[in-house]
Write a structure and sequence with these properties.
With 98 residues, the protein is an alpha+beta fold. Helix content is 24%, strand content 12%.
């Protein structure tokens, strides 16, 4: 569970049923809006994104698109440093491919 702010007002994820089934089957949904306890519920979905989707990756798993803003969660002073987990995973991935 990561605590990462959102700032997209009325933006939300949408895809047709075929695309949704493909994304789910391929494990391309990597972030979902959830409660602090990790439950994916309608109440935890701040913007009505389909299936509570907050982030997806492409089939090659090298491009990420997400609605939350990890750059706004890099210091405890900002309320959370959970965004660093994402940045650290990117660095580790790059170093592992070097």
């Amino acid at each position: 569970m990561l605590k990462i702010p959102i700032s997209h007002y009325d933006g939300r994820y949408y895809a047709d049923e075929v695309t949704l089934k493909e994304l789910e089957a391929n494990g391309q949904v990597v972030f979902r809006y959830a409660t602090p306890a990790g439950r994916v519920t309608a109440a935890a979905n701040p913007n009505g994104s389909v299936n509570n989707i907050a982030g997806i990756i492409n089939k090659k798993r090298n491009v990420l698109g997400m609605m939350p803003h990890p750059e706004r969660a890099c210091e405890l002073l900002l309320g959370s440093a959970d965004g660093n987990t994402i940045w650290e995973s990117i660095v580790a991935s790059i170093q592992g491919n070097a």
